[in-house]
Amino acid sequence: MQTPLNDELAVVHLGSGLASAYCTKLLVDGGAVAVWVEGPEGDPLRRRSASGANIDPQIGGPLFQFLAASTQSIVVDPAGEGACAALWNLLERADVVIWSPGSPITDVEAFAPARIRARCPHAVVVAITNFGLGMPDRPAAEFTLQAMSGGWASRGRADREPLAAGGDHGDWAVGIFGASGALAAWRRAQATGVGELVDVSILDALHLTQPFFAPTFEIGAGRPYRAVRSPAVPLNHPTRDGYVGFQITTGQQWLDFCILVEQPDWAEDKTLSRFETRAKRGDELTAIIDAWTSQRTTAEVVELATLFRLPVAPIHDGKSIGEFEQVVARGWRSTNPVTGVAQPAPPYIIEGDIGARVPGASPRLGAHDGTVLPARERSPSAGGKPHDLPFEGVRILDFTAFWAGPIITHFFAMFGADVIHVESIQRPDGIRAATLRHDMSEGWWEASPFFAGTNTNKRGLTLDMGQAEARELVLKLVAQSDVLVENFSSRVMQNWGLTYEKLREINPRLIMVRASGFGNSGPWKDHVAYATTVEQASGLSWVTGFADDRPEITGGACDPIAGSHAAFALMLALAARDRTGNGMLVETPQFTTGFNISAEQLIEYSAHGVVLGRNGNRSWVHAPQGAYRAVDWDPPYDGMSRDDWVAISVTSDAEWKALCATIGAAALAADPGLSTPKGRMECHDVIDQQIAEWVRPQRADDAVAALLAAGVPAARFQPLAGLHAIPEVVARGLYEEVDQPVLGRVPIIGYPAKFEFGPYRLHRSPAPMLGQHNAEILTELLGLSEDDVTRLEAAAIIGTRPRMGIAW
Q: Which PANTHER family is this protein grouped with (predicted)?
């Protein structure tokens, strides 16, 4: 079977850490040829084991074997004679170089991203750093970057410290943005013959995936997003044999949930239909729900809730996820060909004779020393100019809603594609209902900061798909389009008669992307899913939370991460179509994305029989790490939390010595039992006490400044208020101001990667008003007359105002 890239993309992995490793893995699974360049001691990932198992660094642990499958390894000692010349020979033959700091090679100035770009002008260089290239360097770690992203503000409990998303969430998340940036830039390089530098920031990626457009909300509403560290009700609850998770979003879902848990009085209390009211009575309501779920098994609760079509899922861990019936039925669990360890299959499925690479073996350290990438004849410029947008000329029909769907096509809209966002006046995009005009006054449907944040640069079309004429119009649009993307439940497109088989007859070059929660076949295909449901089912929730409490959720981060994986899969499909001329069906379930970025849980259980669990803010592989309370602060807005906290993460022995010197802990520094990460993890409570005593009398900013000056990763937990104004993102220009007709001038987050050849402004037009481009699209693309448009509007097939009274 061919892969989408079919060995036509040559990648050199020149870095260290999870982020660059996952970025490279995504490209390799798509069919790239890749070489890992390692220092004499090998990539530190070779020695990683979250369960503490002994690892042979020459072979690498099971996580390394998952990430480095089907690649080659060469060892380069920068101090060795002739080593640099050999490395340059390799880099000069690469199409893409994935670069991150922290390896013996990338710490050499000669191999800085700008130097590689200058010497290899044809190559795309993807640099993944904490804050972006050229930014003031400061010590940082994934945990401290999470603290600077604001996502913690709606996670955990107000009576405990702020809580990070578990499982090195940010490092996995940024990998997909690096891989997408690589493919977009490579597509442009194929047209121009010129490579470029793609500058990816982990902090920017966390701002996109964690705080749910809080700055857009803040400026649009004139007040900050009032997230509180208080679990939603209901959320995650104990059962007789584990935990079960709910996500109750709509009013009807709440009423049905009340019947499910045998509390009809709750349904009659109108105040409980609001999230905030349930949160205020959280302890009372949660205790009653816990009592009901605890009397039943997880399977029994899921079965009963499914009868009500409620979003529900078992909360899987590293053991149960591999036995999940949907995983088994769809073959989403693969096996390492050498060790037999279970691991997730790639997160997308392409039907036909093109598919993801079947994972091969990972290389022993230096197994391919002396080999080089084959010389290839580079295509001359296809007439493109460096500043041309990479997806100009691509038309996408966007049948998506909420967050996970629209963010798929938003990437392409920012980078030049003509994206037509299709809704109806009978059932507009559901995220429009998350409006700042709660009184439902005129224009309320245009006052959603969340719709505004994921739909810039798109055109808006309304079509009532319940009417035959609307479906005929869609078929005519399909004939003129390159891609159709949808994230409905599996049966919706079928009910409209818009199957891939039918669409392919009309347009054999069409790529159809289907992005439902659990996929379009298998026992879970019809289950209702939100981001939370996917986090609960895929393992993300299991490792987020405190060890002595129930699982938490990341707060919806699976939506943008899943959507970004789907955008990457679509780029692979476009690359394959460019080569073959044929369209294809691509399935990108949200679940498979969550399953992949929580891969370490399945892998550690399969390899070592260890179920990784929740450990609050602590790391699986280094110590100390945690949140420490500082002097309370006076907030600029009433109602915001007054407690202030410092995030600290020690990732090396040198940082440990610096921490001890800074906080005056000479006895800790002198203790030989604390000289290793394992020893420090075993004595974490004692260490935490001394750190807490040092931080508590200080202002958070003062404590952070002292730690950073000593070289210790630290950050203040940044509240949602003013998130867009912190210096690190202002300097990057991450948020762009957009004039939205109803919200006014609001900041909207851009993309976590800066491209050397642009676009330098991503949000060139605001999100479309409902049906804003009806006449333009129907007349210019389909040749309808003005009278036709008027007739369609009179028949409510199109329109620009929601039909009130429709239940969303």
A: SUCCINATE--HYDROXYMETHYLGLUTARATE COA-TRANSFERASE (PTHR48207:SF3)
